[in-house]
UniProtKB/TrEMBL annotation:
<dbReference type="GO" id="GO:0008239">
    <property type="term" value="F:dipeptidyl-peptidase activity"/>
</dbReference>
<dbReference type="InterPro" id="IPR001375">
    <property type="entry name" value="Peptidase_S9_cat"/>
</dbReference>
<dbReference type="GO" id="GO:0004177">
    <property type="term" value="F:aminopeptidase activity"/>
</dbReference>
<dbReference type="Pfam" id="PF00930">
    <property type="entry name" value="DPPIV_N"/>
</dbReference>
<keyword id="KW-0378">Hydrolase</keyword>
<protein>
    <submittedName>
        <fullName>Dipeptidyl aminopeptidase IV</fullName>
    </submittedName>
</protein>
<dbReference type="Pfam" id="PF00326">
    <property type="entry name" value="Peptidase_S9"/>
</dbReference>
<feature type="domain" description="Peptidase S9 prolyl oligopeptidase catalytic">
    <location>
        <begin position="512"/>
        <end position="710"/>
    </location>
</feature>
<dbReference type="GO" id="GO:0006508">
    <property type="term" value="P:proteolysis"/>
</dbReference>
<dbReference type="InterPro" id="IPR029058">
    <property type="entry name" value="AB_hydrolase_fold"/>
</dbReference>
<dbReference type="InterPro" id="IPR050278">
    <property type="entry name" value="Serine_Prot_S9B/DPPIV"/>
</dbReference>
<keyword id="KW-0325">Glycoprotein</keyword>
<keyword id="KW-0031">Aminopeptidase</keyword>
<dbReference type="GO" id="GO:0008236">
    <property type="term" value="F:serine-type peptidase activity"/>
</dbReference>
<feature type="domain" description="Dipeptidylpeptidase IV N-terminal">
    <location>
        <begin position="83"/>
        <end position="426"/>
    </location>
</feature>
<keyword id="KW-0645">Protease</keyword>
<dbReference type="InterPro" id="IPR002469">
    <property type="entry name" value="Peptidase_S9B_N"/>
</dbReference>
Length: 710
C-alpha cells in the first residue's frame, strides 16, 4: 500500500506557480507599419503611441501623446490602431468584453498632422471592430449591430446599415458561434480602391436562444440571453453585401450557399472588382472560394476543395493574394502543406512537401515572392520557422535553436520577432531580419531562469506509449518529485486535453499548476492520444464521427502503461482535464473498467448535442446524421459505467460549455446510483478566473487527488 508523502525539497508552491514568479516575461505588443520597416508601441503608462525602427530599435517619432495632444480629455488608453498612411491614430478606452475575443469601447480619433483629438462617433453607444480604408481616409465600425462610416477629410459620420438589432441581425460583426469556432469578429472589408465596403449580414432570428441565470449577489438574479446554435439546430443565415460609398447604395451579392452553410471569410484580391468570398457547407467537408464582382454581383467558382473528413477552417486565414496568384494551405497529400494557385484556380505548384505538417503560414513578401511559415518538420513536439521562395522553392530554416519556435512578422515579412523555449528554458524573445539574422534580444528571461534553477524544477522525461490499437506510438512526458525514490511506488495524475488537433506534449517551457502535485509526492504524466496535432491528417482526423472513443481508449492504454512501471502504484492513477479534457476524463472513467481511482473534470461537455454547431458538426456531423456516434460518445449515456472517485467542477455563467452539461450529467449519475463530488463557481465563465478562484480551484483539485489516490 502506498501513501502520499509531502516532498519539501522543491522550492515552489501553488502560489508561486499561479503568480508571476515562474512566468516568462513578454514584451509589449509591436504593431507593424504598412511597409514593415517600423513598428508602433504604446509606452508602459499607455499614454503615448511611439514609432520605432525595427532595424535599430530606436524611437523615430511619437504619433500620439495624451499629454500634448490638443482637446485630449483623458490621461491614458487601453489600445490603439494606426491608419496605413500614419496620419491618424485611433485609441480606445472603457473596453467592455462581449464574448471571448470581441469587445466594444469608446474610440477616439487623433489627427497626427493637426495634433487634435475627438471622439470617433457622436453616437452614445460604444463602437466595435474599427477598420481603416487602405488610403487611411475613412474608418468603418459597428455600433449596436449596424455599420457606421466616418470620412476624416469631410469630418462626417454616416450610418451604412439600419436593420441591425440585438439577437436578430448583425452587420459586419459576427455571431457567437462564428467568433468562438472560426475565430473571427469582423466580416467587413474595404476594396483596394477605397470605393466599396463589403460586409456579411448575419440574420440570427431563427437561432434558438440560450439563457442562464446570473446571480451577482443580487436579491433577484438576472438572466443572460444570447443566440447559441446547438448541434443539429438552425444556424444564422448569412449573405454578402457591398456598400458603394459614393453612390450610397447597397447590393446583395449572388454567392451560392447551401442552407445553414457558412461564409467563413471575405477578402478583396488586388482587383477591386474581385471579392473573394469563402464558403463552407454545413458539414464543413467542402470549401468553395468564389471571386464575386461587387458591380455585377455575379460569382465565379475559383477553388473547390472536398475532404472525406472535414476542411480545417483555420487555413482560410492563410489565403494570401499576390498580383497574379494566391497561396493556400491544404491537407490534400495527407499533411498540411503550402500550395500556389493561379487566379483562375489552376494549381501551379506544391511549395512544401514531406511527411510533416506546416503548422502556420506566417507572412508573405509580395515583392520577392517569399513565403514564411512554421513547421513541425523535425518532430511533432517541436516547431521551426522557414522561408521559401515561390519560384526557387528551396526552404531555408530561419530559427536557430531546437525546441519550440513561434514567430510574428512585420508587414511584407521584412522582420520577425521569434519566441523560443524548450522544456527547461523559459521563453527567449529575439528580433531577426528576413534572413534569420538575430538583430537583438528583446527579453532573455534570465531572472526567471535563475528562479527556476533555484526552485529545482524537475526535468520532463519524454516517453513514447503504445496506443490502444497496439500499433500507433504516442508522445508523452513524465514529471517526478525532486527526491524521487525508484524503490517506492507513487500515485500518478494524468494531465490531458485530447481534443482534435490539440497538443499538450511539446518541447516547450511551462510551469503550470500541476507542478504543485509533485510537492505532495504525486507523479504527473501526460500523453497525447490519437486525434491530436502535428502528425498528419489521418492521425489528426482519426476520431471523426466518433469523438471520445479513441481519445479515452488511448488515455486508458497510457494509464495501463504507467501502471506497468515499477515505481507507479497501479491502484493510484488519477486523470484531470478541462473542457474537452474534462469530457475525456468522464469518457475514460466510464470506459476504463476501474483503471482510474480518481478523476477531476472541469467544465466538461457531457453530450455533444449540448454543444455548438460549427465545432461539433465539423467532427461529428449532426445528431440527425450520426445518432450512434453521439450516443457512443455521451458521458450521460455512459453514466452507469462510471468507475472511480469523480470531482465535477463548473462555472455557472459558462457561455461556451454550458453549466447545463454538468446539471444533466449529475441527473444521470443520480439516476444510476453513482456517488460523486461536485463544485460550482458562482457567475464564472469557461475560464473560471478572477478574484481568488484559480487558487481555490487548484487547492480543491490537489486536495481531491491527495485524498483519493492513497
Amino acid at each position: 500500500m502506498t501513501s502520499v508523502v509531502t516532498v519539501s525539497a522543491q522550492h515552489f508552491t501553488l502560489e508561486n506557480l499561479l503568480g508571476n514568479e515562474f512566468l516568462p516575461r513578454g514584451i509589449r505588443p509591436m504593431v507593424s507599419s504598412e511597409d514593415g520597416m517600423y513598428y508602433y508601441q504604446a509606452d508602459p503608462q499607455q499614454t503615448a503611441v511611439i514609432k520605432y525602427a525595427y532595424a535599430t530599435g530606436e524611437a523615430v517619432d511619437t504619433l500620439f501623446n495624451t499629454r500634448t495632444a490638443r482637446n485630449c480629455t483623458f490621461d491614458s488608453f487601453q489600445g490603439f490602431l494606426v491608419s496605413p498612411d500614419e496620419n491618424r491614430v485611433l485609441v480606445y478606452r472603457d473596453r467592455e468584453q462581449v464574448y471571448r475575443h470581441s469587445f466594444r469601447a469608446n474610440y477616439y480619433y487623433h489627427d497626427v498632422r493637426r495634433n487634435m483629438v475627438r471622439k470617433l462617433s457622436e453616437h452614445p453607444s460604444k463602437q466595435m471592430i474599427p477598420t481603416f480604408s487602405p488610403d487611411g481616409k475613412m474608418v468603418a465600425y459597428v455600433i449596436e449591430n449596424n455599420i457606421w462610416l466616418t470620412k476624416f477629410d469631410f469630418d462626417t459620420e454616416s450610418q451604412v446599415t439600419k436593420d441591425g438589432e440585438w439577437n436578430k441581425v448583425i452587420n459586419g460583426a459576427t455571431d457567437w458561434v462564428y467568433e468562438e469556432e472560426f475565430g473571427i469578429t469582423r466580416l467587413m472589408e474595404f476594396s483596394p480602391d477605397n470605393n466599396l465596403l463589403a460586409f456579411v449580414r448575419t440574420d440570427e432570428s431563427a437561432v434558438k436562444e440560450f439563457s442562464f441565470q446570473t446571480f451577482n449577489k443580487q436579491l433577484y438574479p438576472d438572466f443572460y440571453r444570447f443566440k447559441y446554435p446547438k448541434a443539429g439546430e438552425s444556424n444564422s443565415t448569412v449573405e454578402c453585401r457591398v456598400f458603394d460609398i459614393a453612390a450610397r447604395t447597397t447590393r446583395t451579392l449572388d454567392v451560392p450557399l447551401e442552407e445553414n452553410g457558412y461564409i467563413a471569410r471575405i477578402k478583396f484580391t488586388h482587383d477591386p472588382d474581385q471579392l473573394a468570398v469563402m464558403t463552407l457547407n454545413r458539414d464543413q467537408n467542402r470549401f468553395d472560394m468564389y471571386f464575386t464582382s461587387p458591380r455585377s454581383t455575379v460569382s465565379k467558382l475559383v477553388l473547390r476543395e472536398e475532404n472525406k473528413y472535414y476542411i480545417d477552417s483555420e487555413w482560410l486565414n492563410s489565403i494570401h493574394f499576390l498580383k497574379d496568384r494566391f497561396i493556400y494551405v491544404s491537407e490534400k497529400d495527407g499533411y498540411s502543406h503550402i500550395y500556389i494557385y493561379g487566379l483562375s484556380g489552376t494549381l501551379q505548384k506544391q511549395l512544401t512537401t514531406g511527411n510533416y505538417d506546416v503548422t502556420a503560414l506566417l507572412a508573405v513578401d509580395g515583392q520577392t515572392e517569399t513565403v514564411f511559415y512554421e513547421a513541425a518538420d523535425e518532430s511533432p513536439i517541436r516547431r521551426n520557422i522557414y522561408k521559401v521562395n515561390i519560384n526557387k522553392g528551396q526552404p531555408q530554416k530561419l530559427s536557430q535553436q531546437g525546441g519550440y519556435n513561434s514567430a510574428s512578422f512585420s508587414g511584407q515579412g521584412k522582420y520577425f520577432v521569434n519566441r523560443w523555449s524548450d522544456a527547461e528554458t523559459p521563453t527567449v524573445i529575439t528580433l531577426h531580419d528576413a534572413n534569420g539574422k538575430q538583430l537583438r534580444i528583446l527579453e532573455d528571461n534570465q531572472s526567471v531562469r535563475a528562479k527556476v534553477a533555484a526552485a529545482q524544477f524537475p526535468k520532463r522525461e519524454y516517453v513514447t506509449v503504445t496506443a490502444a490499437d497496439g500499433i500507433t506510438r504516442l508522445n508523452g512526458w513524465i514529471l517526478k518529485p525532486y527526491n524521487f525514490d525508484p524503490t517506492r511506488k507513487y500515485p500518478v495524475v494524468m494531465i490531458q486535453y485530447s481534443g482534435p488537433n490539440s497538443q499538450q506534449v511539446l518541447d516547450r517551457y511551462s510551469a503550470d499548476w500541476y507542478y504543485a502535485l509533485l510537492n505532495e509526492g504525486i507523479i504527473v504524466a501526460c500523453v497525447d492520444g490519437r486525434g491530436t496535432g502535428a502528425r498528419g491528417e489521418e492521425f489528426r482526423k482519426g476520431t471523426y464521427m466518433n469523438l471520445g472513443i479513441k481519445e479515452s481508449d488511448d488515455q486508458i492504454a497510457a494509464a495501463r502503461y504507467l501502471a506497468s512501471l515499477p515505481y507507479i502504484d497501479a491502484k493510484g492513477i488519477g486523470i484531470w482535464g478541462w473542457s474537452y479534457g474534462g469530457y475525456t476524463v468522464l469518457m475514460s472513467m466510464s470506459r476504463g473498467n476501474g483503471t482510474f481511482k480518481a478523476g477531476v473534470a472541469i467544465a466538461p461537455v457531457t453530450d455533444y448535442r449540448f454543444y455548438d454547431t460549427i465545432y461539433t458538426e465539423r467532427f461529428m456531423r449532426t445528431p440527425q446524421q450520426n445518432k450512434q456516434g453521439y450516443d457512443n460518445g455521451s458521458p450521460i449515456a455512459l453514466a452507469g459505467r462510471l468507475e472511480g472517485n469523480l470531482l465535477l467542477v463548473h462555472g455557472t455563467a459558462d457561455d461556451n460549455v454550458h453549466f447545463q452539461n454538468s446539471v444533466e450529467y449529475s441527473r444521470a449519475l443520480i439516476e444510476a446510483g453513482k456517488h460523486f463530488d461536485m463544485f460550482f463557481f458562482p457567475d464564472k465563465d469557461h475560464s473560471i478566473r478572477g478574484e481568488n478562484t484559480r487558487k481555490y480551484l487548484y487547492e480543491k483539485v490537489i486536495g481531491y487527488f491527495k485524498q483519493n489516490l492513497k
